[in-house]
User: Fold these one by one.
Assistant:
Number 1:
Amino acid sequence: MNSNLVFNIAYGIHMLGILALLHGFFSQMSKENKGIHVTMIYGAITQLVTGIVMSAAKSGSDQPVNSTWLAVKFLVAAIILVVALLGKKATGDTKKYWLIVGVLTGFNLLFAFAVDLFK
């Protein structure tokens, strides 16, 4: 299969993952007891898996790969997943987990756009 096709399919699924994370975050915003929505976990898993697929597809093409950018994105996505899993299992006040996942998701989005703008 063509690496560009694989990249584009993974990119589309990657966007669904970010939408799942944002849906989980915003769906909890109006609630008094904020917590980790299950879509946040599914979104984080989707982000990690499709990010790995996209980086592999890009390294298989003749386009340059920014290793530092990939490392930061992967690290933040991994932290999001760990915090989401910890928050889902936590009892009591889980607002801090919800907030950390939301802030890191926003950071990951802004980082992706900023790096793309300043190429």
Number 2:
Amino acid sequence: MLKISDLTAGYGRLNALRGIDLTVGKSEIAFVVGPNGAGKSTLLKVICGLIKPWGGRIEFEQSLINGQPPEKLCREGLVLVPEGRSIFASLTVEENLALGGMGRKDKDVLEGDLEKVLTTFPILRSRYKGVAGHLSGGEQQQLAIARAILQQPALIMIDEPSLGLAPLMIDEVYASLKALNESTGMTLLIIEQSTARILKLAHQVNVLRNGEIVLSKRTSEIDDPKILEEAYFGYAA
């Protein structure tokens, strides 16, 4: 579904990404993990058109999308849930979700999709008429993901869904993402700083360090979690 080849990008003279190769298959959950400053958020911004790549290829659904504007890519099914969630705190949960389906004309299907996200994220049903800014951090994260789903994406990219959340809430968000993937076949590309928990969720894991992919493996190939730790901290052979 998503294929990145020899991607380079940066800011001014700063080369933030070097020779990135990454493939995400349809209906898979792929993780990109790495320390602060590794280039993880930059990678998502390049994919979704917020930053133009310096070189390489980005193919989405077998079409070259290098440098295309974000709004066009969003209409084509490539949706980003940014770091910090970016919900509208003064609006209700209902109104935030309505914004996700605002551009859709298939209102009957939209109603069914809304019911599905409320089933996947039951806390949103119980807080449906409440102000979004009163939700906890984890509940806001679920709202941001639910809103993205209502845009009918083929691929959702999520930047650090666990950021700032308590461990129990991280488990809840991850469980919701796993249920979403299993029930709908939604393809997910998730950025994380921590390697904790991800092996139970991911189909593949990529470790990004200093702007380069230093490890890319199917989780079925990882028989020892220390492999990730070694790559993460720079001890991989």
